[in-house]
Amino acid sequence: MTLKPKISLGIGILSIFVLAVNPVWGQEGKTTAPAQAPASPPTKPSENLPDAPSSSKTAPSLSDLGFSPEETEANARQQALLDKRTHMLKIHQRMGLITTIPLVATVVTSMNAGGRNTSSASRDLHVALGSVTGDLYGITAYYAIRAPRMQGTETRGQIRLHKTLAWIHGPGMILTPILGAMAFNQKNNGEKVHGIASAHGPVAIVTAGAFGAALLSVSVKF
Asked: Which string of DSSP letters, residue by residue, matches 48-98?
């Protein structure tokens, strides 16, 4: 056996040994891809039934209860009018109570405002109190007149009596200061109160009585 075949045989044995130890060396330019986990099956989107209840807890709206938008807007307007009417009538009632104070004082001072020997200071005080009473009465009446009216409501009971008495003390509150001014001028001129001016006292008493009865009609239940 010559040297060349021996060398070839030695190289072949060496190659077999190397491939047995590390077989990757025999795959030139090849790389192994990393193993991938098996893909999970696609999930189907959850389908909500038409009648399934919602998970969020919200209060039902008026449309959910069967009210149309027109009915909803009408109800809102009616509620706004009712709130405004209630607010204005509360002020009307409070101003009526406040007006009672100078009204009583005016009636008390009227005892010293009449007669031939009364002083001008007593008459001036009576006129001043009467003016304050008239102004407060006007504010009180304004809130009652300007309060919104609710359609379909019927006035009954003590409220009807309260409104009926307004037709007495309302004109009386207008006529009383007119007659009082006429009587005041006659007294300042040294004259005895005469003519239509002499009705100032009786008209004032009827007016004050009707106003007091109207106040009691909404303050005391009977």
From this structure: --TTPPPSS--PPPTTTTT--HHHHHHHHHHHHHHHHHHHHHHHHHHHHHH
Residues 199, 179 contacting (CB under 8 angstroms): yes
What letter does residue 31 receive in the DSSP assignment? -
Please provide the average confidence, as pLDDT, over all residues in the chain: 77
User: Tokens 């009473």 appear where?
Assistant: 133
pLDDT, one tens digit per residue, over 185-207 is: 888 888 888 999 999 999 999 99
148 closest CA partner among 212, 80, 85: 85
Sign of CA dihedral 25, 30, 36, 38: negative
- Tell me the C-alpha distance between 86 and 148, whole Å: 9
CA angle 44, 48, 51 (to 5 degrees): 160
Mean predicted confidence (pLDDT) in 12-21: 54
Judge residue 148's burial from the number of C-beta atoms within 10 Å of its C-beta, 0-12 exposed, 13-18 middle, 19 or more buried.
middle
More confident residue, 122 or 211: 211
**pLDDT tens-digit series, residues 58-83:** 555 555 555 556 655 667 788 888 89
Looking at per-residue pLDDT, the higher value among 54 and 144 belongs to 144
Cα angle vertex 212, ends 209, 217, to 5°?
125
Sign of CA dihedral 128, 129, 132, 137: negative
pLDDT at position 122 is 85
DSSP, collapsed to helix, strand or coil, labels residue 193 as coil
